[in-house]
Amino acid sequence: MKKLGIIIEARSTSTRLPNKHFLKVNNKAIIEHLIKRVKKIKNVSNIIIATTNNQEDDKLCNLAKKNRIDYFRGSELNVTKRVLDCSHKFKLDYICEITGDCPIIDIELVEQLISTFLENLDLIDYATNSQGLPNGMGCQVFKKTILLKSYKEIGNNLEEQEHVTLNICRNPKKYRLLFLKHPKKFLRSDIGVTLDEIYDFYLLRKIINYFYKKNVFLFNCLDVINLLERKKDWLKLNKSIKRKEDTIKI
Fold first, then answer.
1. Which of 22, 28, 35, 78 has its CA 20 to 30 A from that of 184?
2. Straight-line distance from the first to the last Cα atom of the chain, in angstroms, rounded to the nearest whole number
3. Which of 132, 153, 141, 148 is nearest to 177 (CA)?
């Protein structure tokens, strides 16, 4: 039986917002809201926090234990190697990569991507659903064999070491890529619900608290888009933040 695992990349030493994963919303570390969500995803053998060997990240390992998921420790800066080594340790065949910066990711969209990938294994090596979605709602899924092949080609390219599938996406003639398309109502790339800086946290806290007060815990991407259509002033909180991904050329 082939194994697909969710690998959540997270570390405590972010330069822009250190210890961001432990900022509290509703008395829980914000990354625990992500863990609660991904535990609902079907067809997954393991959920793993892939963190670093730094002592500062002991607490991420302890948080994984507390939430009864797996953890892995590896390279801090070579994230591609960390994810690859993690997949080796847990004997994964396929990897669904979600960054720890996406605490309100839409699990329905993740399940749709995983299902599409698994149903088309003979045709594709890599699939992503991130194009056009709000930043923080997308993820990617790919074969471990392809990540291994890609890693051998990266060498000392620091950009491709840091961004796990960048080399794969830059080589569409070598790898079979699928960029999942969404209906127009999902296409709001101007919205940022990822956690890079403190103003992102202020927005995410507002969103989570809004839905939790209504006892809605697994709100989805469209729920967030519709909420922010009504609360347009909330979007001003993090509108001016420059995203590192915007400077990367594929």
1. 35
2. 34
3. 141
Whether 92 contacts 50, CB under 8 Å: no
SS (H, E, C) 53-95: CCHHHHHHHHHHHHCCCEEEEECCCCHHHHHHHHHHHCCCCEE
Q: How far apart are CA 8 and CA 147, in angstroms?
A: 16
Residue 3 to residue 15: CA distance in whole angstroms: 34
Q: How confident is the model at residue 59 (pLDDT cuts 50, 70, 90)?
A: very high
- Find, among 86, 139, 69, 95, the residue nearest to 2 by Cα: 95
Burial of 240 per CB tally in 10 Å (0-12, 13-18, 19+): exposed
Mean pLDDT, all residues of the chain: 96
How far apart, in whole angstroms, are the C-alpha atoms of residue 6 and residue 35?
10
Distance CA 22, CA 65 (A): 15
Percent of the chain with pLDDT strictly greater than 90: 94
Question: Exposure string (b/e) for 6-25, b if CB count within 10 Å is 16 or more?
Answer: bbbbbbbebeebeebbebeb
User: 197-223: b or e for each residue (b if 16 or more CB lie within 10 Å)?
Assistant: bebbbebbbebbebbeeeeeeebbbeb
User: What's the pLDDT at 147?
Assistant: 98
- Length of the chain counted residue by residue: 250
- Mean pLDDT in residue range 50-58: 97
- Out of 110-114, 126-130, 245-249, which region has the weakest mean confidence (pLDDT)? 245-249
pLDDT attached to residue 224: 98
Asked whether 219 and 104 are in contact (CB, 8 A), the reply is yes
Report the C-alpha gap between 135 and 189 in whole angstroms: 6
Q: Is the pLDDT of residue 249 over 80?
A: no
